[in-house]
Amino acid sequence: MELTVSTPAILFSTVSLLMIAFTNRFLAIASLIRDLHEKFRTNPDSVYVAQIQNLHRRLFLIRNMQIISILSLLLSAICMLVIFQGSQPAARWLFVSALLLQIVALGISVVEISISINALKIELSDIEHELTYPSLEATRERFFSRRNKKQK
């Protein structure tokens, strides 16, 4: 398979969009940490410390996602230069490496999202008894009863 310059260029738009998403996450979490830090200063509570630790871990993951994505982008740019020089084996190696780095960044993103979801579950655990979720069976019955009424 021969790579053309447009092949590694595909990663530029993908990585750019992911970097925007990662940066937005980073900024939102940094803002939350500042707010929680201020709350902790006025009311020292261990709950704030636990939340800040969780957010700090997420910031670490997001920073790693950003670094890995930037490395992926850098390898894509180098790959384009190598294609111009006519070295297909090196270009393939660089392109595959860039793709693998992007896969790693997305994998870290999945971990960060799961940590975020777990933190929200802990946050909502004290009001869980007040939350009512319709059962799957009740949802199915409502869906099919509406559907049957429309067909008649």
Automatic annotation (TrEMBL):
The chain crosses the membrane at residues 12-33, 67-84, 90-111. Keywords: Membrane, Transmembrane, Transmembrane helix. It holds the Pfam family DUF2721. This is DUF2721 domain-containing protein. It comes from Arsenicibacter rosenii.
